[in-house]
Specification:
635 residues, Rossmann fold, 8-stranded parallel barrel, 7-stranded mixed beta sheet, 18 helices, 25 strands, binds beta-D-galactopyranose
Length: 635
Amino acid sequence: MKRTLGTCYYPEHWPEDMWEVDAARMAALGLTWVRIGEFGWSVIEPAPGELQFDWLDRAIDTLGRHGLKVVLGTPTATPPRWMLDRHQDMLAVDAEGRARGFGSRRHYCFSHAGYFEESKRITRLLAERYGRNPHVAAWQTDNEYGCHDTILSYSDAARSAFQDWCAQRYQSTDALNRAWGNVFWSMIYDDFEQIGLPNLTVTEPNPAHVMAFRRFSSDQVVRFNRAQVDIIRAHSDAPIAHNYMGRVTEFDHYKVGADLDIATWDSYPLGFLEDRVGRPVEDQRAYARQGDPDFQAFHHDLYRAVGKNGRWWVMEQQPGPVNWAPYNPAPLPGMVRLWTWEAFAHGAEAVCYFRWRQAAMAQEQMHAGLLRPDSVEAPGFGEAQQVAAELTATPEVAPAQAPVGLIFDYEAEWMWAIQPHAKGASYFALVFDTYRALRRVGLDVDILPPQPEALAGYKLILAPGLMHLPDALLTALLASDAQVLLGPRTAARDADFRIPLPLPPALPGLPVTVSRVESLRPDMPEPLRGGGAAQMYLEDLETTADPVLETNSGVPVAVGAEAMIYLGGWLDDTAMDRLTRVLCARADLETFDLPEGVRTRTTAAERFWFNHSSQERQVGRITLPPAGVLRVPLV
Ligand code: GAL
């Protein structure tokens, strides 16, 4: 498939006489896509019912005349100020019970019935007007669900919708009381209307209650998105996307993705480094201008799984310093190109740079664009130009299934967040540590949803931390041809957050029972025989199975049967590397000894090499300069 480039553009921010020149420059740069419109509601509808589409008609026409394809966003992430006069209680409410104010964006509650109707109304108006416009070649619903912590809302609207959701799911309060174990601390309900949201309780709320609220909140996003999709589909054949984010896990992306045609995500490698990647401060320093070598790749692989038939894009690519991280350095020269090629190597159909021109006003003045505010080319422009030229020469990247599957489950993420047992323990971090170990030895990874039908064709499947393991998924794992890694905390809870009996993990063919669980302070790792340590989280394993890893005193930490290993702890990098090599040997997978910061990705026709470090690196006979990218045809 041919790979393409694009940009994010805000015609409403610039005098109309600049649009023509902008479009001509975009086309000359070799861009294919221009995303517009996602924050434009107050200029499309300045007052309720007063529609001004003329400017948008002309903007789309101008871009189209230059051969550019438009991705049109629905503007529902930024309801205009007048909307609050119509729906005074539409704002989301935080866990402290405070309404979140107007003056930035994403100021709505997914459960508010009035706003839900407004979002459908504006979507319908856009779909009717542009659904058959030849230049509108794709759609984006809303913008970044979950950005700025906006999924969980503790509003009155959310409470009453949650009560309905509970009534649907449990049918009777008796069933709900039994499922949640409400006899504990006298929390029995006798009417669904008594059920509140799990905030402002005196001490920790019932985890089953919180889990239900997390599921409900995710379902509200799915419903909100689906309503827009249904309307757009009725008027347009163009594919529909949403732009997800890095490490935003409060809703189930697979479920939202099932209604869309393309998954896209917004990749800000330097922005993410300090707050989202979760690596030690030395790594943050070493990668300050390059971004973490695995964080973007992880999300590329994740969104390939979220997108229907593996279709995914980068909708927003950082082109220079951003404005919102604790520190905002400029990328090392070459990194904008590297990030773009890395996305293509992982299967992105398109990469769009955010934004075309740096804004001279409002919140994002400190955020680079491809152009400076005075329209002179910024450093990112040249790198985009280089990629465009390279794409002209070799536009094809052929996809391939990876040999390794790594399950990522949003419900497990919520369960760990609700009951971490150790300060800082997070399912995302555990899965990401596992992913990093696989990438360090040069393996390609497909992230998999927790679905039985996703498991076919892998040599190795890893499912760390899957706190709830549905029977059908366990059956499929046992039946697969792959070597399987489970644990820690596998099947530790049932769907309603109870400890199941027999005690977990209860794996047919692998005699192991978790008899006790402890969490460890960061300064008390448990050293393992042969190197490395278990940290954070350690299970006592009652087992007669063969040990794979043991503590220095000979207590088993990982045990194995023929095609399955159960791991009863969270490993540090050294121990994880050892376990990865055991797994690869069992699965007959070739591994590399990659130098620090070098990553590789193999497609059906070639092997890509990426140097994320700021130093030159040597791999065999290959020399990679800092930020170097190399494509080698497979022989
Ligand atoms: C994204 C968002 C954009 C812009 C960008 C800045 O999260 O979708 O609208 O704010 O960040 O980096």
